[in-house]
Amino acid sequence: MTTPDLDLSKHHHIHFIGIGGISMSGLAKILLHNQYIVSGSDIQSSPLTKKLESKGAAIYIGHKASNIDNADLVIYTAAVKSDNEELKRARELNIVTMERAEFLGQIMRHYKKSIGIAGTHGKTTTTSMMSIILEEASYDPTILVGGELDAIGGNVKVGNSAYFVTEACEYVESFLHFNPYIGVILNVEEDHLDYFTDLDHIKQSFHKYAQLIPEDGYLIANGDSENVSSILKDLNCNVVTFGTSEDCDWQAKNISFNDMGMGCFDVVYEGENLGHFQLSVPGLHNVVNALSAIVCAYYLDIPLSVIQKGLTLYKGTHRRFELKGKIHDISVIDDYAHHPTEVTATLAAAKRYPHKKTWCIFQPHTYTRTLTLLKDFSTAFQLADEVIIADIYAAREKDLGLIHSRDLADAILDNGTPALYLGDFPAILNHLLENVQPGDLVITMGAGNIDQVGNMFLTELAK
């Protein structure tokens, strides 16, 4: 899937439909930094839109045809439908329109050393790790990450070098518009089944992504994953594998965890121990994420000592096992996990965190994902002591009546883990206030707005 080159010098006023999205806002910031006139619309105001406004962007709340007045290029997200007022008006006026992923791919063409980090899970964390390492190496990269990273002051950083690092999302095959010099594939699993037909369709898409990497570039792939290994044929680029098994080119060995669950490990390449690495984020999954970043940095000629320091400096991204607060010896953590594998990994990391009882407050994300992965979700919470299920966060979908959060709570309970459907946030808050005890750990989990429950709970505890 290739897109003709876009000559950005011919465009001066660029309008974003859905500018409040994490990636869209990042692209808008890059353009503002380069002195473009930027405007955009979204259905509601947010900290991201307010930050853009403070930097000079014109922000419109609500979609109206008049919002695109004077724009000569319009960028829209995959969620924007063809009947959107602004998109229809742009096409009537023959204004150039481009989907977000296509536009990001165009931007990547301006960077000789672009890095696209793909996978069903771990993209934001690994992109953030890689960003910190590049910064520590003084490579002055441009960074676009799908979360808020304190080290760069948000979700984007505009550098002045050939290095660009971004997440490469597989949803609607967005990443097939990208132009990676280095591509990382962390894992490949069933997800986004509102778009993909099945797992084979997903693997085909990741294979096409790997084929985008040039002959002198690198694919850094998780050799522990059978699904990833199955897509490594018929590639012209350099293929390098990482993982914990002996079959991998790069291996994490002697893995251990400190009292807070932070991992440390040795890195072995071609039989040689290259050194010991300490992380400041918890969980075995982050050891694997970090190993992929180490390999990537190595092929960018970053010294191992710099990589080691960069990883210790990475303290996490907002909404990725983020400690929101601790009051009356009750810890509240928020995590973005919304897939069964992510839920299991997060709860495994939490098991190593000092606490008595684990309360997992889960908000399912989209009806399609909840329905198609219900069986996997039903066993994903077994490391929690108590599970509370909130109403499904619809996101881009409509409720067709095929699945309800109550179904998920019942399925978890049937598999032996205490689970309760409470639905709305006030009911969940009251239950927590009545039942959580000092020493307990509360984890709000999901890709929607479930983090609000943790904030509300901490506010009440502080009274």
UniProtKB/TrEMBL annotation:
Pfam families, sorted: Mur_ligase, Mur_ligase_C, Mur_ligase_M
Catalytic activity reported: UDP-N-acetyl-alpha-D-muramate + L-alanine + ATP = UDP-N-acetyl-alpha-D-muramoyl-L-alanine + ADP + phosphate + H(+)
GO molecular function annotation: ATP binding; UDP-N-acetylmuramate-L-alanine ligase activity
Binding locations of ATP: 119-125
UniProt keyword list: ATP-binding, Cell cycle, Cell division, Cell shape, Cell wall biogenesis/degradation, Cytoplasm, Ligase, Nucleotide-binding, Peptidoglycan synthesis
InterPro entries given in the database record: Mur-like_cat_sf, Mur_ligase_C, Mur_ligase_C_dom_sf, Mur_ligase_cen, Mur_ligase_N, MurCDEF_pg_biosynth, UDP-N-AcMur_Ala_ligase_MurC
SUPFAM superfamilies: MurCD N-terminal domain, MurD-like peptide ligases, catalytic domain, MurD-like peptide ligases, peptide-binding domain
Any one biological process term the GO annotation gives: cell wall organization
Main location: cytoplasm
Annotated Mur ligase N-terminal catalytic domain residues: 13-111
EC number: 6.3.2.8
Domain Mur ligase central: 117-297
Subcellular location: Cytoplasm
Family: Belongs to the MurCDEF family.
Protein name in the entry: UDP-N-acetylmuramate--L-alanine ligase
Upper taxonomic lineage: Bacteria, Bacillati, Bacillota, Clostridia, Eubacteriales
